[in-house]
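ESCALATION

Customer reports they have been waiting on this structure for their group meeting. Please prioritize. Original submission:
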Amino acid sequence: MKRTGTRASGRSPKTLSPKAVEIMRLVDALSAGRGSHDGVVIGQGLATLLQGAYAARGRSVPRWVHELLAHYAHKKRAP
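Update from on-call: job pushed to the front of the queue and completed.
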């Protein structure tokens, strides 16, 4: 019987990979004192750059990169 609310890996859908969490912490540390908008811009740019780098090499984009893209896509950019 399949359990609901979990993935095949045993993680719940809301659990982020350790690599994604570490990169988010790094972005937060780099943008500390600069405002949340700068952190969002850095995070979005980094996630997009990683996605493009994997695609350019013909490799599939890892789940943690998708997690970064989703995390920073939910943040609103200032006009």
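Sent to customer with the following note: Residues 20 and 67 are 7 Å apart (CA to CA).
Escalation resolved.
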